[in-house]
Amino acid sequence: MTTDFAATKAMFDLPKGVIYLDGNSLGPLPKGVAERLGRAVTDEWGQMLITGWNKAGWMEMPARVGDRIARLIGVAPGTVVMGDTLSIKVYQALASALELNPSRRVILSDTGNFPSDLYMADGLVRTLGQGYTLRTVAPEDVLDAIDETVAVTMITEVDYRTGRRHDMKAITARAHQMGALAVWDLAHSAGALDCALADCDVDFAVGCTYKYLNSGPGGPAFIYVAPRHAETVRPALSGWLGHESPFAFDLDYRPGRGIERMRVGTPPILQLVALDAALDVWADVTLADLRARSLHLTDAFIAGVEAACPELTLVTPRDHVMRGSQASFRHPEGYAIMQALIARGVIGDFRAPDILRFGLTPLYIDEGDVQAAVAILKDVMDHRLWDRPEYRTRAKVT
Amino acid sequence: MTTDFAATKAMFDLPKGVIYLDGNSLGPLPKGVAERLGRAVTDEWGQMLITGWNKAGWMEMPARVGDRIARLIGVAPGTVVMGDTLSIKVYQALASALELNPSRRVILSDTGNFPSDLYMADGLVRTLGQGYTLRTVAPEDVLDAIDETVAVTMITEVDYRTGRRHDMKAITARAHQMGALAVWDLAHSAGALDCALADCDVDFAVGCTYKYLNSGPGGPAFIYVAPRHAETVRPALSGWLGHESPFAFDLDYRPGRGIERMRVGTPPILQLVALDAALDVWADVTLADLRARSLHLTDAFIAGVEAACPELTLVTPRDHVMRGSQASFRHPEGYAIMQALIARGVIGDFRAPDILRFGLTPLYIDEGDVQAAVAILKDVMDHRLWDRPEYRTRAKVT
User: In chain A, count of helices (H) and strands (E)?
Assistant: First the structure.
């Protein structure tokens, strides 16, 4: 292993006394982000004003930062662009994929997908009308459900609750074999796994950056379009910055070159600056090392919890190839248990109805954190520390 | 006049030697934004981590900040929500308006509209198919073109090039009289005019915040839905944060309460924090004073330029009721003239083919700035200072 994870851990400003196992929901603050963002505000916006779009390179940021993401998902530079939210990018990818496969009407997804993906697909098929439909099956039935009626598969690689990982290569191959296109959501993959999208021959992919890529709350999303489609798709969300010549202010839309056409409106520069600075942590990280370390930490956490807390039931697959970078356990009192953990500095999260979710993120979590978290969880379970009124009162959870 | 515009001017950090007449493209940095954003990064994201969504009030920001915008566009609290870009909000408003008027198929707009609005409408009608179409007429023909085939009008109140202002009340009334709905784009209105949307009975409105509201590059957009429609519309962009209960993670979409349903994905918190801080400048500003001061400054600028530079031809209407908060002039050498001005600290911008555009923004521009800008422009014109190779080489303009 060539990656120095002690060095990456030192690049984060984590609060004292906190073991942060929720980087799969919101990544922590990397050192250097505050200072870089401060400079962008004061020296770029403040001093350059409108000229920052050229002088500070703001206009090119969606593509330039996209290239940095490209390496982390296993695709070539020039195939990824930043902007909007993941939900918007799902809509964009689906609309384009459907248009590339005009004789078919079915979007296939699974019930383990993140609900927003299903909601956006629902909104799209309602807007399209004309017999378009969203078909959902159980996660384990996806492969068999890809038939000759399916226009596009829309699958999130790693289940946000269970951490189960789909077989991207097999599903994409099956989709292509049946004449369908494959759209992948990498929300819990980018920065978490050894993503190899080009190798899997994926058609479209989308993802967010505020989880394993640590861009901060509401960081911009990304979209990947396979080069074979990039000059063919006509975006449904045809905004001016995806135009061939935005500053010609033509009345008619003409899609821009390749991936540039997937841009929509004015990009969120402040969030992009935070992301750009946060990506510096990845400079010396290899994806193979990241994946090995993630599996090692997750194995250790699962083994520790199962030995210490037999009341908790693992829901994440033990099989490495079927697992993302998190471990989830069921318990009827999951909500209260998580509150008790958070009160003791172990931050994971809870997903209804009964799932305790822990993200194992190699950039800043090490074996010592894993052992400490297990010990605190054991203490909470052994002494029923969760059984207090203040832990059972449900606030809105994120 | 009760508003103290010397006080608001003191709330901005403008670079020395710059007269900034491009706040209609990107507003300058208000004092306090850098510090507030720095705290959000370090104390909220850095220390609260995932709990910031509740503890720091991030989750409610789109509605809370929307309420602050509401006052500036003349509508009630609870009718505006922040998020995405203006282009996305245009799509959202149009899709909703069309669905409320299902027997009709025409979006009516004008050729003076900002191109992205036309492009987004084009993308929407292509996605809808089924005979939906975008019809554009000349700006002066809008009122007469609203007939019984029109489902929805999509008009930008102030023309981004000429500064011509449409009659919002008359067009909206005509639309309603003919059975159409009215969508208004406030890109050059919010923070620039005495907007009174509720008084005009507008159905939907959208706008950006990085111009006259000074939220910084890529600041979030807003959308207003009239209360009479808010519980009826079913969003086409049905993201999870517009769901009735986002954290129930239901598989089926159910629209949230009222304006909340126009939320889509995870909101851009860092950009929202910058906007929230920037809105503090407005605390003691009345819209009537803002409008009076804007007209006064624009009159002074127009009179000064016409007296000093007869070669420049005014394209902005002289009539106050037909004018936004900018003054535009034509000259065949407009591009080079603007470059020469910028080199001398007067920052306006250029819009092809021949328009020099100057934003008159009362919050930080005063009579002294206007006189100084006119004097510099006179110098540039009198001595043909624009006629140098370095001013004629066209870079990408924003």
Answer: 14, 13
A222 included as an active-site residue: no
Please identify which of the residues A185, A276, A349, A369 carries the catalytic annotation.
A185
Catalytic residues of B: 114, 185, 210-211, 357
Structure ipTM over 0.95, yes or no:
yes
A359: in domain: yes
Is A317 found in the same domain as A177?
no
Same domain for A265 and A373? no
* Number of domain units in chain B: 2
The residue among A241, A265, A282 that closes a domain is A282
* Domain match, A214 and A351 both: no
What is the crossing angle of helices A269-278 and B269-278, to 10°?
A: 130
> Is residue B398 domain-resident?
no
Give the span between the Cα atoms of A174 and A152, in whole angstroms. Answer: 11
**Which of residues 306 through 335 in chain A touch B, CB cutoff 8 A?**
none
From chain A, pick out residues whose CB is under 8 angstroms from the CB of B220.
268
Are A141 and A220 in a shared domain? Answer: yes
Is residue B342 less than 8 Å (CB to CB) from chain A?
A: yes
Is residue A211 part of the annotated active site? The answer reads: yes
Q: Tell if the CB–CB gap between A41 and B352 is shorter than 8 Å.
A: no
Residue A285 phi, psi (nearest 5):
-100, 130
Contacts made by residues A133-136, CB under 8 angstroms, sequence distance 24+? A133/A105, A133/A106, A133/A107, A134/A106, A134/A107, A134/A109, A135/A106, A135/A107, A135/A108, A135/A109, A136/A108, A136/A109, A136/A110, A136/A111, A136/B251
For residues B304 and B220, membership in a common domain is answered with no
One digit per residue, the tens of pLDDT, for chain A of length 398 reads 799 999 999 999 899 999 999 999 999 999 999 999 999 999 999 999 999 999 999 999 999 999 999 999 999 999 999 999 999 999 999 999 999 999 999 999 999 999 999 999 999 999 999 999 999 999 999 999 999 999 999 999 999 999 999 999 999 999 999 999 999 999 999 999 999 999 999 999 999 999 999 999 999 999 999 999 999 999 999 999 999 999 999 999 999 999 999 999 999 999 999 999 999 999 999 999 999 999 999 999 999 999 999 999 999 999 999 999 999 999 999 999 999 999 999 999 999 899 999 999 999 999 999 999 999 999 999 999 999 999 988 765 44
Q: Residue A398: inside a domain, yes or no?
A: no
Most A CBs within 10 A among B240, B245, B254, B338, hence the mutation to make, goes to B240
Reading the block at residue B232, the tokens are 């009826």
Pick from B59, B218, B253: which is nearest to A269 by CB?
A: B218
In-domain check, residue B292: yes
- Distance from C-alpha of B266 to C-alpha of B86, rounded to nearest angstrom: 16
Interface of B with A in 79-118 (CB under 8 A): 84-88, 91, 95, 111, 114-116, 118
Q: Across the interface, do B28 and A51 touch by the CB < 8 Å criterion?
A: no
CATH number for B159: 3.40.640.10
Final residue belonging to a domain, choices A239, A258, A282 = A282
Residue span of the structural domain in which B336 resides = 5-29+286-392
* Min Cα separation B330/chain A (Å): 17
* A99 to chain B: closest CA residue: B127
